Amino acid sequence: MARIARTLLNRLGGMLVVLAIVVTVVFVIVRVTPGDPAAVMLGSDATPQDIADLRTKMGLDAPLIVQYVQFVLGLLRGDLGQSIFLNQPVTQALASRAEPTFFLTLFSILIAVSIALPVGVLSAVRRGTLFDQIVVTLTMVAASVPSFWLGLLLIQVLAVGQGWFPASGYGGPDTTFLVRLHHLVLPAIALGVVNSALITRFTRAAMLDVLGDDYVRTARAKGAGEGRVILKHALKNAMIPIITVIGLSIAMLVAGAVVTETVFGLPGIGNLVVSAVLRRDYPVIQGALLVVAAIYVLINFAVDMLYVLVDPRVRL
Amino acid sequence: MTTLTTASAARPFAASLRRLFGNRAILFGAVILLVVVLAALLAPWIAPYAPNKLSIVNKLKGPSLGHLFGTDEFGRDIFSRAIFAGRISLLVSLGVVCISTVLGVLLGVAAGFFRRLDAPISRLLDAMMSFPDILLAIALVAALGPSLATVILALGITYAPRLARIVRGSTLVLRELPYIEAAVAMGLPTWQILLRHVLLNLASPILVQATFVFASAMLAEASLSFLGVGVSTDMPTWGTMLASGREYMNNAPWLMVFPGLAIVFSVLSLQLLGDGLRDLVDPRLAKES
């Protein structure tokens, strides 16, 4: 128990340092804008007075170090700034668009894992067979397909062609959750299938690593059934690299969601970021970047903690 | 005598080539990539039309002998545009690989070789890798202003930590090897040890990782262009072609099929190359692919 507590504290310390760097990087990114960010945001029609007002509103008049301290203090209060174009706090803008992104990411990872785990395990167990070769080839091709292109093809075939799913949107504000889920099917397939490629390859590789180990041979020699050998002995020991890659995939899914949401017209955080970039709404870009990176750091932390639970030998 | 000397000198090279292209992944990858690169380089000679040549009478025509991949909403030849678009994609990806390799090697070697720098650089890399690639690139492009150069710079910065991680890991191993210890004991200047003994031995892992970064950069550039936050929409890239083609995809599916296939084949060729090279460099990994 003491070991787990020590591990937890160690990792917590590391995570806080990384989060502090993330905050600093995000702060710096907006400040590297050539020229005046306020002038860039308002465009060429803005008067000097408009620009000066916006500079004051964004706190850009203060020295850099003061801006940084104010930025960090704001974050500690849960304040990510104000979107100039949406005229609402960034936290509110992000929160109102979190649902589609959350469920899109969740369903995509579920689709990816439910394809990757069985296929990867089976491919490793039947190494060198036709099935294995097809899996290796297909994962290679799937990893080369841009998710937004697969999304466009799915819209064309399953939405426009067959009419089985909506081609875009997330239903109206008064629609039921089921209707909204229906809107998420195609984007989740587009993202999930592409990301399943990486997880399948890692699952196969991790399984191949352990299938030749002594304890697997011993289990077989003791007469354990093949299913028990694969699931109980091999897969359990192969889980650490698999959990790692699933954790990493979540970041990739969020990146993919930015583009996929645009293809499918989903009113999520990805769509918000793209429109913020086109409008140069820096506070929104900054806030979204920060929140997504923080979520990724937290997921990594959770994955590290899972290691300890999955494999008691692990000391972090 | 001369013949004998030449033959024996040629043998190791021939053997290396045989070993290289005996790997099916490398062979397939190299052939596809060669076609893409040649098509891009020879675009002005092999493209039947200028990429921006308008021909309204021919708008949205399906694939035919006159227009192999069909035409777009302005009657422009998709085949010609796809070939010219390859130039931008390859140029961007090559630029990204150069920037991320330089940054990645500097950071990775510094972290791996100098113990004091390891912790701060590693935490910086952890932080940089917490940002999803497209999102970080979008933010950087937004901050720096959209242009070909900023897309290259933004993606170069985004992918540098991936290379730095690999370089750091390999440098940590190299640092403990007897010949590096001997070089240090002999009093060789640090820069000489780094250049002669460390960097040279890092060439293989860097090459493998750079190939994967090349593939990722190609996908990322296509995504940025598709979103309209990358290079100018007037420039034909596979991403901008897909973005403008999607409005007409119900009636003219070829507008999205061919640029998409161009992306898939190019990225696939790089993945195959990267995989094959990795297996050659580290045969222990060969069983995994």
TrEMBL record, chain A:
UniProt KW keywords: Cell membrane, Membrane, Transmembrane, Transmembrane helix, Transport
GO annotation (BP), single: transmembrane transport
Domain (ABC transmembrane type-1): residue spans on this chain: 98-307
Membrane-topology descriptor: Multi-pass membrane protein
Gene3D superfamilies for this protein: MetI-like
Membrane-crossing segments per the record: 12-32, 102-122, 134-161, 181-199, 238-264, 284-310
GO cellular component terms given for this protein: plasma membrane
Record family assignment: Belongs to the binding-protein-dependent transport system permease family.
Protein name from the UniProt record: Peptide/nickel transport system permease protein
Species per Swiss-Prot/TrEMBL record: Mycoplana azooxidifex
Lineage: Bacteria, Pseudomonadati, Pseudomonadota, Alphaproteobacteria, Hyphomicrobiales
TrEMBL record, chain B:
PROSITE patterns cross-referenced by the UniProt entry: ABC_TM1
Residue ranges of every copy of the ABC transmembrane type-1 domain listed in the record: 90-274
Membrane topology recorded in Swiss-Prot or TrEMBL: Multi-pass membrane protein
Transmembrane segments: 25-47, 88-114, 134-157, 177-195, 207-232, 252-274
Location in or out of the cell: Cell membrane
Keywords assigned by UniProt, alphabetized: Cell membrane, Membrane, Transmembrane, Transmembrane helix, Transport
Range of residues in the leader sequence: none
Gene3D superfamilies: MetI-like
GO cellular component labels: plasma membrane
A GO biological process held by the record: transmembrane transport
Origin: domain of life: Bacteria
Pfam family name, one: OppC_N
UniProt xrefs under SUPFAM superfamilies: MetI-like
Keyword Plastid: no
PANTHER family: OLIGOPEPTIDE TRANSPORT SYSTEM PERMEASE PROTEIN APPC, PEPTIDE ABC TRANSPORTER PERMEASE PROTEIN
Family: Belongs to the binding-protein-dependent transport system permease family.
Entry protein name: Peptide/nickel transport system permease protein
Annotated source species: Mycoplana azooxidifex
Lineage, uppermost ranks: Bacteria, Pseudomonadati, Pseudomonadota, Alphaproteobacteria, Hyphomicrobiales
